[in-house]
Amino acid sequence: MMKKSFAFLPFSALLSLMLFAHEAVAVTPGYYVVTTYDEEDVKAIDFNFWNVKLPNASAVYAPQIGFSYGVTSRWFTELFGEDIHTDAGGTAFSNWSWENDYMITQGQYPIDLAMHTLITRFHNTNSGVGLEYGPVMQGDIGRVQLNGNIFFEREYEAGQTNRMQMKYQWQVKYRWKPQFAYGLEGFGELGEWRDWSPESAQSHRIGPAIFTTLHRAGDKVFKLDAAYLFGKIFGKEAKVFTLRAHYEF
Question: 88 to each of 7, 50, 148, how far by Cα in Å?
Answer without folding.
Answer: 28, 18, 37
